[in-house]
Amino acid sequence: MEEEHLACNNLIYQNIMFKFKFINIYHQILFYFIIGLFFYQCIDDDEVYTPKPRGYYRIAFPDKEYQLYDSVCPFKFEYPKYGFIERDKHPLAEPCWINIQFRYFRATLHLSYKPMRNKKIAELIEDSRELAIKHQIKSTGMEETVILRDSVRVYGLIYDIEGNTASSLQFYVTDSTENFIRGALYFNVRPNIDSVKIVLHFLREDVIHLIKTMQWKKTSIATNTKM
C-alpha cells in the first residue's frame, strides 16, 4: 500500500515537473518570439526610413506697396515700402550709385548708374554680362529675359542665375544713347538656394516692378553730383 502511494506521488511529481518545463519552454519561445519581432520591426523600419528634409523658418511676407524714388539722378522708379534706399558708400562708388536695403530679408539690391558720355553701349553690356557670368562658376545655369519698353526707351536684359550663387538675379537697363543702369541682388547670408528661393521669388517681383516703372529724366547730372 505504501509502495502504491509512493508511486502515485512520484507520478504526480513527474506530471507537475513536465507541465512546469512545458510552461517554461512556452514562455521562452514567447519571449524570443517577441524579441525577434521587435528586431524585425527595427530592421524593417531602418529599411524604409528616409531622413526628413531640413526645415526653414516660415516667413511672413509684407504686402506689396510701392513708392516713387525721384532724386537729382536722371532716372526714377518705384520700389517697395519695405525697402530702404541709401547712397552707395563704397570708396569707388560713382554718382547715383544707390542700394535698396531689404533688411527684413537680409538682402540688398545694388544699382550702379553709368552716363554714356564717353562709353560705348557694347562695352557696358559686355561688362554687365561678364559680371553675371562670374557667378556661373557655382551655378547650374543662367536664363536671360529681354526688357523692351519702347514707349519710354527702356531696354535691357534680366539674368536669372540658378544654383548656390552670391547673386541669383542681375539686370541692366539703358536708353541706348545716354543712360545705363546695372542692378544686382545679393543676400547677406551664405549662398543656399533652398533657404532663399522663396524670398528670391518674392523680391524678383519687386525688381520686375522697378524695371516696369523705370523712366529716364531729361535733366542730366554732373559727374560729381551726389544723390
Keywords:
Protein Transport Mog1p, Chain A, 227 residues, alpha+beta, 3-stranded antiparallel β-sheet, 3 helices
Low-confidence segments, ≥5 residues, pLDDT <50? 38-50
Which CATH class of the largest domain is shown?
Answer: Alpha Beta
Distance, first to last CA: 126 Å
The third-level CATH topology of the largest domain is: Protein Transport Mog1p, Chain A
CATH superfamily name of the largest domain?
Answer: Mog1/PsbP, alpha/beta/alpha sandwich
Note the beta-strand portion: 25-35%
How do the strands line up in the largest sheet?
3-4-5-9-8-7-6
Q: Give the H and E element order.
A: HEEEEEHEEEEHE
Number of domains: 2
The CATH architecture designation of the largest domain is: 3-Layer(aba) Sandwich
How many E strands?
10
Taking all Cα atoms into account, the compactness measure Rg is 37 Å
Main beta-sheet annotation: 7 strands, antiparallel
Roughly how much helix do the residues carry, as a percent range?
25-40%
| Tally of alpha and pi helices | 3
Question: What's the mean pLDDT score?
Answer: 78
Which term fits the overall shape?
globular
Assign the structural class, choosing from mainly alpha, mainly beta, alpha/beta, alpha+beta, or little secondary structure.
Answer: alpha+beta
What does this structure look like?
With 227 residues, the chain is of the alpha+beta class. The protein folds into two domains: 1-50; 66-216, Mog1/PsbP, alpha/beta/alpha sandwich (Protein Transport Mog1p, Chain A, 3-Layer(aba) Sandwich). It is 36% helix and 30% strand. The chain contains three helices and ten strands, in the order H-E-E-E-E-E-H-E-E-E-E-H-E. The longest helix has 47 residues, at 2-48. The chain starts with a helix and ends in an 11-residue tail after the last strand. The model is unreliable at 38-50 (pLDDT under 50).
